[in-house]
Amino acid sequence: MSPRPCYWHEESDGTGRFIVPGCAARANAPDAECTCILAEHRIADLHRQLDDVRRRYHRFARWHDCVMDAVRAHPDSTTICTAAQEAFRR
């Protein structure tokens, strides 16, 4: 996970203001342009990751349904399902 974006900290007693860098650019030079990833970009990236997880889940669910259909069509389907349930409980 990326560090927190750069921000300025001001002492409550007014004795000073300093930058708390969140990126290497500001860590090396406080007046440099911030290269932190903005929250909007992080959110967009999380949406892409979520979409990928959903695609993989739906692909897995389809695979599972196909395997279960094949097992149910097998003459020993009861034996296969019982063995799978026992293995799952272990």
Strand order of the largest sheet: 1-2
Integer average pLDDT? 87
In terms of per-residue confidence, which ranges show pLDDT below 50 for 5 or more consecutive residues? Answer: none
Category by helix and strand content: mainly alpha
Helix percent reads 55-70%
* Secondary-structure element order, N to C: EEHHH
Number of helices: 3
| Sheet with the most strands, sense and barrel status | 2 strands, antiparallel
Q: Which overall shape is indicated by the principal axes computed on the Cα atoms?
A: rod-shaped
Strand content: 5-15%
Radius of gyration: 27 Å
Strands, total number: 2
Distance between the termini: 35 Å
